[in-house]
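Lab manual, section 2.4: Encoding a predicted structure.

Procedure: take the sequence of the chain (265 residues), apply the prediction step described in section 2.3, and record the output as C-alpha cells. A sample record is shown.
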Amino acid sequence: MTMGTEVSTRREDNIAFLRLEGEDRLSAIGSGTCRALAAAVTQLEADECSRAVVIHGAGRAFSAGADIEEINSFAAAADFRRFIHGLTDALDLLEASPLPFIAAINGPAFGGGLELAMACDLRVAYPEVKLGLPEAKLGVLPGAGGTQRLPRLVPRGLATEMLMLGQAIDGARAFEVGLVNRLAATASAVVEEATALARELAAGAALVPARVKSLYLDTAGAGLAEGIARERDVATELFASPDGREGFTAFTQRRKPAFLPAQPS
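Recorded output:
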C-alpha cells in the first residue's frame, strides 16, 4: 500500500509554509491529504502569529493531481463523491480563510494540484512549468472547482479549451493571461519569490487581505450597487481600525506606517 501525501507546516517569523510531502509520487492528493490540508488551514487560522502562507510541493512537482491509485480502488460512485467532497471542502476552507495564501508552483500542477493553486489568492511559477486540468483525457471533468475557478481567472475561451481538451499551458503563458501573478527565473527560485511576496503582504495591515477575500466571496453573486454598498461598509470599518488611522496619519506625516505586528508566539 502506498503512503499518501502528508502536509507539513513550519513558520519563519510571521510567514507560514505548507508543504505537500509526497516527493516520491509527485505529491498526489489523496483523502488523507485533504484532511491534513484542512487541519493545517484551521491550525494556521488559530495561530495569530501567521500573516501570510506559502504552499509548495516537495521535490520536483507542486502536485500532479488526485491520487489515481486511490481513485482506482473506489468500488462505487459514492466513494468518489466522498473523495471529491473532501477535496472541495478543504479548498473552500482555504479560499475563505482570512489569511492570504500564495501557491509557489515549483513544479507541474495538474488536476487537483492546479485546483489547489487556483484556490489560493496568489500564484508564483516559473516560465517552463506545466499547468493544466487533464481530466478530459480520462473522460471526466475536474470536480473540485476547476470548471468554476479557471474561467474566473483566465479568458473564457482559453478556459474552455483547457477543460474540453485537457491541454496544459506553461508558466509564461499563465503569467500572460493572469493565472500566475509573478514569475521566478527558475523552479528553484519559486519558493523564494513567493516568500518575498508573502513578506510584502505580512508587512501591511492585516485586515486588508482578509477583507479583500471576504468582499470577493460575499459579493460573488451580487449586482454592482449591492457590491459597492458592501465595499463602502468595509472601507469605513478599515478607516476606523487602528491600522487605518495609522495609515492616514503616517501619510500626512510623510513617514512609513507602523502597522500592528503579528501576535508574539
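Check your result against the sample. Residues 207-252 form one domain.
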